[in-house]
Write a sequence for this structure.
């Protein structure tokens, strides 16, 4: 796409040689339509590029105009990185408070591991893990998202004070989920995943990972809209590591702006994922913070609005420096 950043982006846009990506601070000078080989100046596409160029409106009542950090809080015994770290509500609540103190904008609470090969958890057990945590943190004013595939857990968590639903199945797992989200009029994150945690390792073949993920997420956006979910309520997560190998993960991060064609803000959760270990040789997931931050900053340059992370303090610090470098004032 010919991406430009910071002062160079502002100069190119001012000269009419580039257009802003999602309102800036990244701009792009070149573009092509899917299925066409010809690469043309981005300015030649006019209004057709509006989904890519317009800054997304505020989402979920969160601050606008800067990247957001979503802290991961797994109240599970078996999540791939931090499973078992918070075996009771008191410890999970304490960790949530710590992430808020470190600068997290949202705390994403989950009670079912969806790592590759994970078995499903009954909704009752999932709720026993997450509801005390959601209730306590929400009562203290925290913005809570509930990471679940189950409509009953979504409903219970929203009743307990959660504001956002984050569904790795993009509302496809539970037939009642889309109608529930529509009825509650709550923000929702639709993540791309093929199959289930058990079957997804066998579903990693793509014709073109970026275009395939975009088309498959477009189908989920259409299904959610058909159920009554407003597009403005949706955010999209490309599902790094879910039914994707290292090459696909890197391709998605490098070409993330393609997803903006769907007209929704982008959430990226690359934190501590296996592909970072493969690239760096680091076998211990909780020692992958540097690689996770590098992936996250690449996602921000590609138009992501929210980073879903384990290492909140380090990410917040990195994002602040990123803003100082790239997000200088600009005019369109």
């Amino acid at each position: 796409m010919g991406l430009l950043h910071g002062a160079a982006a502002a100069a190119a846009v001012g000269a009419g040689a580039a257009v802003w990506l999602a309102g800036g601070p990244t701009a792009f000078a070149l573009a092509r339509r899917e299925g066409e080989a010809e690469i043309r100046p981005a300015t030649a596409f006019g209004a057709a590029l509006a989904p890519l160029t317009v800054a997304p409106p505020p989402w979920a009542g969160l601050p606008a105009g800067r990247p957001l950090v979503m802290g991961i809080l797994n109240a599970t015994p078996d999540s791939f990185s931090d499973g078992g770290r918070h075996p009771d509500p008191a410890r999970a609540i304490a960790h949530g408070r710590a992430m808020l103190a470190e600068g997290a904008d949202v705390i994403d609470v989950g009670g079912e591991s969806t790592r590759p090969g994970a078995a499903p958890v009954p909704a009752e057990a999932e709720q026993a893990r997450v509801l005390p945590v959601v209730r306590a943190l929400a009562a203290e004013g925290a913005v809570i998202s509930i990471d679940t595939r189950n409509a009953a857990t979504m409903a219970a968590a929203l009743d307990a004070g959660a504001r956002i639903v984050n569904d790795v199945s993009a509302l496809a797992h539970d037939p009642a989920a889309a109608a529930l989200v529509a009825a509650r009029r709550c923000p929702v994150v639709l993540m791309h995943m093929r199959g289930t945690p058990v079957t997804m390792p066998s579903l990693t073949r793509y014709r073109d990972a970026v275009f395939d993920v975009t088309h498959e997420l477009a189908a989920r956006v259409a299904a959610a809209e058909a159920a009554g979910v407003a597009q403005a309520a949706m955010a999209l997560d490309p599902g790094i590591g879910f039914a994707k190998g290292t090459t696909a993960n890197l391709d998605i991060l490098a070409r993330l702006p393609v997803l903006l064609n769907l007209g929704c803000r982008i959430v990226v959760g690359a934190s501590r994922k296996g592909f970072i270990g493969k690239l760096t040789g680091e076998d211990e997931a909780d020692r992958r913070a540097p690689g996770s931050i590098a992936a996250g900053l690449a996602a921000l340059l590609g138009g992501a609005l929210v980073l879903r992370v384990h290492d909140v303090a380090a990410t917040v610090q990195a994002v602040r420096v990123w803003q100082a470098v790239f997000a200088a004032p600009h005019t369109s």
Remarks:
- The mean pLDDT is 92.
